[in-house]
Design brief:
The chain is α+β, with helices and mostly antiparallel strands. The protein has six helices and four strands, in the order ααααββααββ.
Length: about 160
């Protein structure tokens, strides 16, 4: 038999889900974006939150984890992502930058910007490795290299250097 929770139990799930969502968001933002690759921060949070909510209800019995509580948590996460993305699409660039972050310039006119590199928690060797995977051997070949908010590296070569 399905255990139907009361309003307080449903509100408990909603508020705990919102709290853990923003806590996880903050932790991932503090850690940095270099491992995110093509996923946005919200995509990563969605995968983690949904995986957790779905996993618990699949593993534990109804007595330990109510399916209604899991549905409530999943719905709350999906609606939060939808609401946040809806707001971002209709607000200022400043708000969007606050939530998603901004690109960090790592190399400008062939010169490494060490202070910016430190902000990314990436070593010079890691950056060189990423550049080599894009057929760039020297910083001097680049007009601009920046770490995008989604974790990808954008490279603009100087005009006198040909891409191999």
């Amino acid at each position: 038999m399905i255990n139907v929770p009361g309003l307080n139990e449903v509100l408990d799930v909603i508020f705990r889900t919102i709290g853990i969502f923003f806590f996880t968001y903050l932790i991932i933002r503090i850690r940095g974006n270099k491992q995110l690759s093509n996923l946005s921060l919200f995509d990563v949070l969605l995968v983690i939150a949904l995986g957790s909510a779905m996993g618990d209800v699949m593993i534990y019995s109804e007595k330990k984890v109510s399916i209604v509580r899991a549905f409530t948590a999943i719905t709350t996460v999906v609606l939060m992502i939808f609401f946040i993305e809806f707001i971002i699409a209709r607000t200022s660039k400043k708000f969007s930058s606050f939530l998603y972050g901004e690109p960090i310039v790592l190399v400008k006119n062939g010169k490494l910007l060490n202070e910016n590199l430190k902000k990314t928690n990436m070593s010079g060797e890691q950056l060189k490795s990423l550049l080599r995977t894009n057929n760039v051997r020297y910083y001097s070949e680049c007009k601009l290299v920046q770490l995008e908010p989604n974790g990808e590296l954008s490279i603009i070569r100087k005009k006198n250097n040909k891409k191999k």
